[in-house]
Structure formats: C-alpha cells, structure tokens
Design a protein that fits this description.
Elements (H helix, E strand, L loop, with lengths): L15 H7 L5 H17 L19 H10 L1 H23 L46 E5 L5 H14 L8 E3 L3 H8 L9 E6 L6 E14 L2 E13 L8 H15 L5 E5 L8 E9 L2 H6 L11 H7 L11 E3 L5 H12 L4 E4 L2 H8 L6 E7 L6 E9 L2 E3 L7 E2 L1 E4 L3 E2 L4 H14 L4 E5 L5 H4 L5 E12 L11 E2 L4
Parallel strand pairs: 5-6, 9-18, 14-16
Antiparallel strand pairs: 1-3, 2-12, 3-4, 4-5, 4-9, 6-17, 7-16, 7-17, 8-10, 10-11, 11-14, 11-15, 12-13
Helix pairs in contact: 2-4, 3-4, 10-11
The structure holds tetradecanoyl-COA.
The site of tetradecanoyl-COA has 38 residues, from strand 5, helix 7 and strand 6.
Length: 486
C-alpha cells in the first residue's frame, strides 16, 4: 500500500520498508528498542500520559504475575505503566511525525503528544463563528474551478466513479486499487441530511471540464469520550495522478472546511493510512480468506509453509448455510429494535457515531452489492438479540492475466448479546461466502479481537489511523474505537 494509502488493508504480507518504518512483524527488534526508549522518556512526564485502563498486561510488557504484584503494591504505578505503553506505541508514530508538515502544522489538530495525554480536556482546539468564515471559495490556479457534485445525477456519479476507480487508494506494490461501485458511492454520500455542496470537486475550467480533484463531507453526530458533537465525516479525498505533489490537497481540505464551517460545524472525523498530526487511535486490518485459491493466484496471500493448496482450501472452508438459530436478513420493521441494540452497544466505546432510527435504516438496510445486515431473532420472545453487517468494497487487480477484480466484504457493525462472538461471526463468513466474496476483512475495533484468531483471520499490512479535526481528547486503544468509516 502506498504511503498515500488510506486503508492499508489489501494484503496480508507487509513490505520490508513498511515493516521497518512501522516496527511491524518484519522488525521485532527495532520495535522493541524504540518502545523501550519512548516508555522511559514518557514515564517521567506523568501528566502527559493517557488513560489506558483496559490495556492487557501482555501489551504492557509484564508477565501476569509481575502485573499482579505491581498492582497490589502500587496501583497508581501499575496504571502509569499501562498508560506509558499506549503512549509508547504512538511514540513510534511520533518519530515519523517529527518531520515538518507545511499544511498540517497550521491546522487545529493536536501537534504534540502532550495535547493527547490522559488528562487532556475533551473539546475544541480553536473557536470561531460563522461571520469569521470567508464567504468566497478559495482561489484555484486559472485553469481549474470549483464545483459541487450531484451524485444522484448518472453523469456525475460516473465521473466520480471513474476518478476514484483510476486514481484512488492502492497497495504499496500497486497491485490492487479500491473500486467503490456507483451504488456504494451513492449510499456513502447520501445519508439523511447530506448536503451536495459538501461533495467538493475540482474541475478543469475548459473543454469537457474533467473532474481532477474530490473530497466529501457527510453529517454525523460523533461521541468522543462520552461527549456528543455535530461533525462531518471526511472521505474520498482524491487528486488525479497527473496533478500529484502540487499541493492541491491542502486547498481541497481548506475548501471543504470553509463550506462545513459556513453551516456552523467545526469538527470532523476521518481515517487515513498516512501518519499526520495527530491520530487519536491506530487500528489494524485483519483478513479471512474465503476463496484461498484466488487470493494466492492474485498475490493477495501466500501459501503458508508446510501447507498444500488443498490443505489451505480445507482450512478456510465454511458451511453452506448459517448455523445460528434465528439468523435472518434485517427488515425495515426491525430497524427500531436493531438501532436501539446497536446504540446501547456503542455506548461502551470512546469513539462512536450516534444514529437516529432514520440514519440507521439508511446505513444498515441491505442493498445488494453494497451493504448487508442480518439479525438474530429469539424464537420465543421475538426479541432482536444480535446483529451483523458488512459492506462490499471490491478492488481492481492491475495487470493480472486471469482476474481483474477482488471481491472483499468489510465487517461493519456487529452486536452479540446472546450469541457467542465466534458463532455470530462464523455466520457472517458464511453469508459473505454465499454472496461470493473472496475475502472478509475486519478492523481490530470494538470487540473484534474476540473472534479474529478463532475464525482464522490473518493480520494485514499497515495501520489505519483515526483523526479528529479541531477536537482534542486523550488517545484511544484499538478496542476502544467504536467507529467504522467507509
Ligand atoms: S484518506 C484517502 C486519501 N486518498 C488517497 O490516498 C487516494 C490516492 N491518493 C491521492 O489522491 C493523493 O495522493 C492525495 C494527496 C490526495 C492523498 N489526508 O496535494 P499534495 C497531505 C490528509 O501535494 P498529493 C481520506 O479520504 C500531506 O501530508 N492529508 O499531495 C480522508 C501534505 O501536507 P503536509 C494528506 O500526494 C481525508 C499535503 O497533503 C493526505 O498530490 C481526510 C500534500 O499535498 C491524506 N490522506 O495528494 C482529509 N495525503 O505538507 C483531512 C497527503 O502538511 C480532512 N496529505 O504534510 C480534515 C477535516 C476537514 C473538514 C473539517 C470540518 C470542520
């Protein structure tokens, strides 16, 4: 996945360069050394250490026995050690971030680790009012102009589809590129309350007015450490390959910010594969093969040592039909109960979206080829006790003689109150296989750790960083994140 990659998740293997810079599986020694140094440095600076109440003792680098003794003798010290470990993990990002960011260093985002400590007050970094916001669009070079995009117009959605299909996120080796479908883009960009002037385009000013730059915002209520804030979710930032490295990105970001600000909204949430000032969380993608032969053929995954292809196919085989009693497709009539179930669940997490029932229906009712949702209904009480959902995001496969498309399902939101996580998500794999997906991907957000290894997911390459714009708060562990952006 290129350094510009948003979602470093398309492959199981990790490039050497990436492993070295990120201290991934290729470089355990480098990783350990860096962490130790940062832990030492940060342990002195107690007030800047973030809350890490749930970190495991393994993550803190202690044996269970050591942790128990430490906790008994010195509870505050034990907590500090845990906190330092998370700070240390982010410290590795810190090393990368020490480079100057001509644009990002001027923005209302945290610029130093100190601003993200456990005691950081959750709230605005800069306060402005609408009358301080420029009413005119930012200047663009003479041959370009701003436009908004009407994604329900077939010609315009075609243009967006083509720009992204040819220029959006690729993996490090330029073998795969995301291929968001037109239907998916319409779903992703038209939730209740969307505004088309937040679907921002840069076009060539003459001739066919070719679309060359894009960025989008959609409205969302986002809860951060218990505080609910009106924000926008920013996505689909894309600059045509021929216009790269010309600083068009800061102009797109400033223009979408201006438009959002004119509507009286001052905060945003976004994810990226690149490390910028400054992530609030750092997550990882995991992949579960559903069609191992194809995944190996296209170079997405490799045959493991001492495994033949037929052993691998057997290993990843799933039953033909779902196994959980009461599992069925979610219907319109289920939305009230399912939305309540999800909202009650998401309260556990430090970062999550707050859905109205109308929004829930938009995001979760199954749309073929886009998003799939299922619920478990208790046969006796008729109560909706569990839910699963996943979305479809294929990738183009570049230059392969046999295949041109990888069908990937991405875990969206799942809730287990009655069914065991592994049983519930095993059904998700079965349902995805029924829809002919080649791979099922999931982030290590929420409680996903409870099923990833049992259900034979393998770790992906790279990290997905979560960011907040103009909203300061303490760092979060991967499992404290309850938000999945498309
Ligand atoms: S993430 C998906 C990003 N898209 C892709 O990866 C698609 C393929 N790549 C491209 O199209 C280009 O390479 C992009 C950069 C457009 C990514 N997020 O124009 P430049 C900074 C934020 O010369 P290019 C998604 O959609 C970079 O650090 N900034 O660069 C979420 C440098 O700044 P600085 C990024 O390579 C987007 C500057 O741009 C990213 O030609 C969230 C260089 O500009 C990135 N992914 O084009 C956006 N990549 O010097 C933020 C590079 O300071 C939203 N840069 O380091 C913020 C909230 C806004 C709303 C607020 C409302 C209140």
């Amino acid at each position: 996945m290129s350094s510009a990659g948003k979602k470093k998740r398309n492959r199981k293997k990790k490039s050497k360069a990436q492993a070295q810079t990120e201290g991934g599986e290729g470089s355990p020694t480098t990783e350990a050394k860096t962490e130790t140094q940062v832990v030492e440095a940060k342990t002195d600076a107690a007030p800047t250490i973030p809350d890490l109440s749930n970190i495991t003792v393994q993550e803190a680098g202690l044996t269970a026995a050591q942790a128990e003794v430490l906790a008994a003798l010195d509870p505050a010290g034990a907590a500090r050690t845990k906190q330092a470990t998370l700070q240390a993990a982010f410290g590795q990002l810190g090393l990368e971030e020490q480079k100057k960011h001509k644009f990002w260093n001027t923005q209302p985002v945290p610029q130093s680790a100190e601003e993200q400590g456990a005691d950081a007050e959750v709230g605005e970094i800069e306060t402005k009012t609408v009358d301080m916001v420029n009413k005119e669009g930012l200047p663009l070079p003479t041959n370009f102009e701003w436009a908004e995009c009407d994604v329900s117009n077939p010609k315009e959605i075609d243009e967006v589809y083509t720009l992204l299909c040819e220029n959006y996120v690729e993996d490090d080796d330029n073998m795969f590129r995301f291929d968001y479908s037109r239907d998916f883009l319409q779903w992703a960009l038209q939730p209740p309350g969307y505004q088309k002037h937040l679907h921002v385009c840069v076009r060539v000013a003459t001739g066919k007015k070719k679309l060359v730059g894009f960025i989008t915002g959609i409205p969302a209520d986002i809860a951060v450490h218990g505080k609910i804030q009106k924000m926008v979710e920013i996505n689909f930032l894309c600059v045509h390959k021929k216009l790269r490295a010309k600083r068009l990105t800061p102009v797109l970001i400033k223009e979408v910010t201006r438009r959002v600000n004119l509507g009286g909204v001052w905060q945003a949430v976004y994810t990226a594969g690149v490390v910028l000032p400054k992530p609030v969380a750092r997550n990882r993608y995991y992949h579960r093969s559903l069609n191992p032969k194809k995944l190996i053929d296209i170079g997405f995954s490799r045959l493991q040592q001492r495994m033949t292809l037929s052993m691998t196919i057997k290993l990843y085989k799933v039953p033909k039909t779902t196994q959980v009693p009461g599992m069925r497709k979610m219907k319109r009539e289920d939305c009230k109960a399912a939305c309540a179930l999800l909202m009650n669940y998401l309260k556990k997490f430090k970062l999550h979206q707050v859905y109205t029932e109308e929004e829930f229906a938009h995001w979760f009712l199954t749309r073929d080829g886009v998003v799939y949702s299922y619920v478990v209904e208790d046969p006796i009480t008729d109560e909706i006790t569990d839910m699963i959902s996943f979305y479809s995001l294929p990738s183009s496969i570049m230059g392969h003689p046999k295949y041109n498309n990888l069908k990937a399902a991405y875990s969206f939101y799942n809730v287990a109150t009655k069914t065991k996580w592994t049983d519930l998500m095993n059904d998700a794999l079965i349902l995805a296989k029924q829809q002919d997906f080649d791979v099922f991907n999931a982030l290590n957000v929420m409680e996903n750790d409870a099923f990833l290894s049992d259900l034979k997911f393998g770790i992906g390459d790279g990290n997905l960083q979560y960011y907040l714009y103009n909203w300061r708060c303490p760092l979060m562990e991967p499992k404290e994140v309850g938000l999945v952006l498309l």
